[in-house]
Amino acid sequence: MTKLLGITVALVVLVGGCVQDATELSDSDHIYNLLASNGTVEMRPLEGQGEDGDGKDGTHPEFWFRQLANESAAFEVILENDPSTGICTVTVVRNLYADFYIDVVHDGEFNPGIKPISDIRTRRAVVERYDDVSIHGGWVLTHITPAEYSLNSDIPQEVFIQSMKIYKGDDLAWECDSPDTFYDIETGLPVIESGELIRLEVEVLHTNPQYDPEFYLYAHGPCPSWPRHFMNDEGLWGDRVASDGIYSYEWYAEASSDHWFIAADIIDADTMLDQEEDDYDSGAWGMIALKE
Ligand SMILES: [Ca+2]
Ligand SMILES: [Ca+2]
Ligand SMILES: [Ca+2]
Ligand SMILES: [Ca+2]
Predict the structure, then answer these.
(1) How many structural domains does the chain have?
(2) Helix count (H) and strand count (E) of the chain?
(3) What domain range is 89 assigned to?
């Protein structure tokens, strides 16, 4: 049975004038509080500035970035089975309202158009209840899937991420070819050390290509100078084989005080080639990468 949880976090609840302590919360409340406090389930909004691409031949915008319009901490948790069994699969859903600033006029001036973004971010998780109920009623996070970013507007989504691989040097450190794949949070997440040579390889799908290039693809992560860099299939910047459908970006991981979030972010060329039309079309996958 599927059950929707409220979006308000309540560590103590008032019932009939009495304050109940955390041990009287329901399993649903405990699971929500666990997920609200665990950074591993974070789904970052991929906002802010970054590298635009080569920027010189006029085929890329002069500037683009997403700016959050309304980012509350609220999210929705859908329980996929009865938590009384002691193990529960959940879906975590978080909306994203933002503006897509895009400037395609290469005149050295920032004179953008703005396209509205309405996205939904989804990831699934497995939680298990242990005997020690002192924290979150005994509920512990054990597995997560990647976060998947999809359009939540009337515009049909035509661009999709199909796979992600993270290499450390020449060694494959993490891979995913379905956003429904669960990863053990102790042993299955990518772990990255500052200064390591990282390569992200991505495969994508465009269901209705109209332009050449068909889309623009970006890596988000602990990259140099900007948190976002253009990915290519032209044998450049770490791309091992040109024109094989595998897009790449390679970099030395920047230092960070927090865990990283690595995402592959595809934007339709139709969105990127003008700054007037209300046609934002994008998809992304993102995964937490633990700091070693
Ligand atoms: Ca301009
Ligand atoms: Ca390639
Ligand atoms: Ca367009
Ligand atoms: Ca489109």
Answers:
(1) 1
(2) 2, 19
(3) 3-291
